[in-house]
DNA sequence: CTGAAAGCGCTTACAG
DNA sequence: CTGAAAGCGCTTACAG
């Protein structure tokens, strides 16, 4: 790894000129540019990003903060992360994975985060990360609503509308007794979806019963990976078999639902319908039946999050929306059908 | 963000002393330490990682390079990445996601990678990344065998043994006509598994037929996400229904297999057995039947890769193994059973 | 279009 | 145990 001085000497120019050639911040004559490039190639030179960062105050990296120490990625996360990395790369930015709870970091005295900004996934109602970012003065955009003293830019789906749309879709099929396996209790997205669900049900004149709403356990909870399976059994049992439709939070959950229903001898969608929020085609079509879903467009969310952040940083031109809503749409497959007649799917015990 | 000078002045010590307190590289008297810490807190000071990196030559970040621009994570990837991030954090290291093909990077003139080392996933027989790392002088460990001029440390499963074990397992159940849906052609892991499969079959006296070996399409190929589904149909058709067992490369592929077999009216495991290499319990138990698998211990691989890399960097004590093999083991579930009598699963057409 | 020099915010011998 | 000073490898006004 040679340094800028050596290149400058070999190309018979000043360090400043070498710098200009690589940063392209000031024009350089064609002849000089070529001489510098040739010298650089000869010496295998590439600018040192760290030294550059020290003076430009730009690390050229953004943080992607995902809560949890241990985690599972759903299809949503996978597509989202993929898109964030790709979009960031378009502007020469790299992505630092950052998903460690602060208390689990080894070093007692942390150095500053070498990132220019952050994308905060799955925000909670009370989220340490928000406060941390604000204290450190790191610009960030959240994926989903957040509770903060100062307003912070957010990229999100319209979660209230999503649940309303799903309920309307199921209502139209004659369903009324719907159980909702919601996201984690402490997340803001779960709160919004919960409210919207309650409203939709009230609008339809359905009295809410306890078996109609569950929340995904924390990742640290061993019941996490059996969420769909176990709560589906509860739903069927507690509802006395009256439930005619299930809304599952993600693909993993939905597979658990299907598994439980199969064990109970219930047919999907004839006895009971299953609707899943997000998941990708290559998995959702693998089950029997293929799962009808709401496409949350995670790739759009990721790309918008990055451009919003880069706008905040002045890298990309354009105004930053305080609240950017990404469209979503129902993808019909085969797991939802007209509700069975009352009691048809009652379980024998 | 205040700087070291301000803290030094407030604490009435030199910059060097403030530095020592935070780096803990030289002892500092208790009294002075406390004064510095108090001043730091008051000024909300934290050392600037970039400035520190410039002189220490340590970025405190490792790169995780995953091939492809677009990607799907299998359960294997998810658990592996998770483990890498966690293990790195134990030593104060962060993880930079790096999965962009070089030709897709926007900036024509790249600055140096601000990482101390890299973990290279899914190496190919001819892999640009290896050459790049070597040219840039970045220490790296590969997950899987690699073709390189100089030997490079590798953390891996014993892929030959894995396939041998799987074949032995299936042989013991009476299977002989086995189709192998292998990893991508260009990967070294696929090559090792292929050879081992061929050996095992030869040892058993089975003549290899074309329908017995397939390779996963490149991610850029649209057939990628239907690999398991489509090739399973091919296997059944081309073998004239004589195949009695399928080995699938990963969970996603296996779900595709199951889907195809169901459409063909073949019962798993009575008509045909399915064995999957890797996948996690929370998905593998969701299908009908639950999938018997080889547990590759991705979390162990990730942790070992990080410690090996940090040893190369002199961060962690200990010798670095040129080749570190992580154990694997069969997890029996319900998708493999005794082979049916010859022709029992012949498909009617 | 190009150069000389200061400076980004730390760490690290060297000296005491 | 602590300090003064040089230096890490760049970029950026300033001057021409």
Structural key phrases:
alpha/beta; 349 residues; six-stranded mixed beta sheet; DNA-binding; homodimer; Rossmann fold; disordered C terminus
What is the beta-strand fraction of chain A? 15-25%
User: What's the CATH H-level superfamily name of the largest domain in chain A?
Assistant: Response regulator
> Can you count the helices of chain A?
12
Instruction: Report the CATH topology name of the largest domain in chain A.
Output: Rossmann fold
Write down the secondary-structure element order of chain A: HHHHEHEEHEEHEHEHEHEHEHEE
Q: Using the 3D structure, state the CATH architecture of the largest domain in chain A.
A: 3-Layer(aba) Sandwich
The main sheet of chain A comes to: 6 strands, parallel
* Low-confidence runs of at least 5 consecutive residues of chain A: 105-109, 343-349
Mean pLDDT of chain A: 90
Largest interface: A-B, 68 and 68 residues
The shape of chain A, in one word, is elongated
Structural class of chain A: alpha/beta
Oligomeric form: homodimer
How far apart the termini of chain A lie comes to 74 Å
Domain count of chain A, please report it: 3
Any idea of the CATH class of the largest domain in chain A?
Alpha Beta
Count of distinct strands of chain A: 12
The order of strands across the largest sheet of chain A is 2-1-3-4-5-11
Helical content band of chain A? 25-40%
Q: Taking Cα atoms only, what radius of gyration of chain A do you get, to the nearest Å?
A: 26 Å
């Amino acid at each position: 790894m040679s340094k800028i001085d050596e290149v400058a000497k070999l190309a018979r120019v000043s360090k400043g000129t070498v710098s200009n050639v690589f940063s392209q911040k000031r024009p350089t004559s064609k002849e000089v540019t070529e001489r510098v490039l040739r010298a650089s190639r000869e010496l295998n030179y590439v600018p040192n990003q760290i030294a550059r960062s020290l003076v430009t105050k730009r690390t050229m990296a953004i943080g992607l903060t995902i809560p949890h120490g241990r985690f599972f990625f759903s299809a949503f996360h996978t597509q989202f992360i993929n898109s964030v990395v790709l979009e960031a790369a378009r502007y020469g930015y790299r992505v630092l994975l950052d998903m460690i709870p602060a208390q689990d970091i080894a070093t007692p005295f942390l150095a500053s985060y070498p990132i220019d900004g952050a994308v905060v996934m799955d925000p909670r109602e009370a989220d340490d990360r928000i406060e941390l970012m604000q204290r450190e003065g790191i610009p960030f955009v959240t994926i989903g609503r957040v509770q903060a003293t100062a307003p912070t830019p957010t990229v999100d789906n319209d979660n209230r509308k999503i649940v309303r749309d799903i309920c309307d879709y199921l209502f139209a099929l004659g369903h009324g007794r719907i159980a909702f396996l919601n996201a984690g209790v402490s997340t803001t997205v779960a709160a919004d979806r919960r409210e919207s669900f309650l409203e939709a049900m009230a609008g339809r004149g359905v009295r809410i019963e306890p078996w109609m709403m569950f929340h995904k356990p924390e990742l640290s909870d061993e019941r996490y990976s059996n969420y769909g399976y176990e709560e589906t059994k509860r739903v069927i049992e507690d509802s006395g078999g009256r439930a005619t439709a299930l809304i599952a939070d993600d693909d993993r959950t939905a597979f658990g639902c299907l598994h439980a229903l199969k064990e109970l001898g219930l047919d999907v969608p004839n006895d009971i319908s299953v609707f899943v929020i997000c998941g990708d085609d290559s998995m959702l079509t693998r089950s029997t039946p293929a799962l009808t879903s709401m496409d949350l467009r995670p790739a759009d969310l990721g790309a918008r999050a990055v451009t919003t952040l880069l706008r905040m940083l002045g890298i990309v031109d354009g105004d930053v929306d305080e609240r950017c809503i990404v469209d979503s749409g129902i993808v019909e497959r085969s797991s939802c059908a007209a509700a069975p007649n009352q009691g048809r799917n009652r379980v024998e015990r």
